[in-house]
Amino acid sequence: MKARRAANVAVVLLVVLVVGVGASTILVTGDLPLQTNTGFTVTLDNAGTFPGTGSFVGNDTISISTGTVTAAGAGALEIPDSDLSGQTQLTNINVTGTTAEIDPDDKAQFDITGDLSQIGLETPVAVGDQDVDFSYVSSGTFDLTLRGLTPNADLAVVSPGGALLGSGTSDGSGTATLTMTTTGANDAVLVTNEAPTLSNFEPSGETITTPTPNLTVDVDDTSFSKLGGDEITVEFFDASDSSSIGTDTLTSAGTASTQFTLTSNGQKSYFVEATDQFGASVTSPTQTFELQEPAPTIADVSPPDGQLLSEGPVVLEANVSDPSLPGGDTLTVEFSDGSGVFDTQTVTSNQTVSATYPQLLGGPNDYSITVTDTFGGSDTTGTNTFSVPANLTLRDANNASNIIDDPNVTATVRFFEEEGNLVFPREPTNGVVDMTGLPVDESFVVGVRDTSGTFVSRLTLIDTIFEQQEVFLVNQTESTAIVRFNLEDRTGRFIAGETEIQILRAINTTDSAPNTEEYVVVAGDVIGSQLSFETELQQDVRYRVRVQNDIGETRELGAFTARLDQVVDLTISGIDVGFDSSDEGTQVQTSQTIADNGDKTIQFNLLDLSESTTDISVEVIEEGNESNVIDQGGIPGPAGSYQFTTVVSGAAAEEEYLVRYEYTRDGERITATVVPGASSFSVGSLDQLDPGWAQIFGVGFLIVMAGIFSRANARIGALVLPGIALMLYITGILDGVVTIGAIGIAFAIAVGLNLISSDARAGI
Questions:
Q1: The listed CATH number (2.60.40.1220, 3.30.930.10, 3.40.30.10, 2.40.30.70) that belongs to domain 297-388
Q2: 705 Cβ contact list (under 8 Å, min separation 6)
């Protein structure tokens, strides 16, 4: 090979000499390198005849029999077989620093520049026939300029499998420079790279109601059916700011889509840009549509407009809905009273909203509920009105049907608020104090004075007007006693200025059933620094005392009868003795003590550390005659603790009594009847069972226990079973099924059987 290259060099030198002496042709064997004055070398890779000076055209062109090679700079290429015609093959190419223009006699000129080492150009080069147009080997990017192509066309160079190798655009003369970016050895097919087509935009020119519409467009491309097909990226843009909404990708003709999330009503606009994998793209005209998202609605408003309510607190409720929920909208709900908005809530689903009315005033109370969505749509109830009791009636304690309409009787109402006390002097009209506009859902003290001396002046405390709407006065003709109540607090939780005392009396009110009485407040006040309260009460009338602190702890401290002027000492002790304070839920204790004189003191204690127990009701009933209610009490709650105490005296103390109680906890109503001193339960115990199921359990348990004992130990079973029955009765499980008397008889029979059996064995 070295010898061959040396011979070629010699030939080149010889060529120079020959040229100098005017020789025209020289016979050459082996490769023949020809170099232009610009430094570009063309190697003819075939033995032949050197044409002499005719091979050099100017300073930059080499001419051979089948065409020319022109280069303005240094570089090289090799022509196998020394032939540019037919399938033009070029090897050992070095055109990184210049452009080589190859002009075969049988095809249009083509140019090459860049990182290219080999190329083979077919004849003819035909765009779109899906045949290989050229092959190449490269290690980097290079440019190939072709002529005689389709004018003004986007062109792509792909592999037979459809992979993109390069691309370019032809000018008006059909000349295109193809930039080839895929390296290695590749066969290349030249195709027209037509841009995708877009049609059938939705929504377009219409009005929609959903704030999250799907934007869609039909997409097609001729390249889908060529070679390996095409891949088109479709991107949607918000025309208001050219921000991207979303993209979709298609590999065949179809529909592209994306979701457009809108936040306001009105005209909206968008456009679409589709780009195929060969770089061809199209941008659509701007599409417009109108959004009219439906406004939210309010339904099922409570309390209804114009309703009179008999209890508080008052909870405003309404169902709010929006067609765009959930997910496409957000609602703002505002609750307003007569003075403005008092509660605002954010809603992201169709639901019921509620808010507690902030301050109830006697008489009519105005409210409104307004809902607004993020699109500016809204709905409102307008101004609705509900009413609460507004009349406080003065009545005769001994004849509650009589209204005291004496003009000499005056009244002053004093309310207790969290901050400061307000005093409202009101004159009764025909025995009725008009409390319209006053905060009737708060505790208040009523001071009543009779300047005529017909009725005993009264100071009484009422929790709310919902609870009690009458003040009961005692006629001066009745015998009365001045009673002073002294409070001894051993818990440290019932302190001066924060503790209320109420004196209750059983009265047949206008709301009571015939021949029945209910306990109502007849006197009371907030206890001052002396921890005492003095009032004038009717003699020989049974009263009950209730004490409550500012956090709702309540003690009902038993009953007493006012017979003469006296001082009554009230002792408040803790009610949590014997409770497991770590237990969750509500715990109950009952007790019974018998004094030396035979009086029975029955006590009910309830403890709930979470202060979630409500609607507490307690009754002391006669055993075996549950319709005979000896005493009763209770509070609405929620309460953390509650104590009820009653004393049974005289002949009634010789009877046996049960404690029947109810309360609500976590939405569940708990009911139980127990023997005093035998209960201590928490939520989750057997006392929560329906009484019928509890009885079934108790009887079933007795049957199972009876089956344990055989004939051999029947005597033992006869003694054990009454004991088990007694325990089940004490816990309230067998209440209503058996009585203490029946259990006692069973036990006596068992003892008798055992005695008889013992005598028989002894031979008596």
A1: 2.60.40.1220
A2: 717, 720, 721, 724
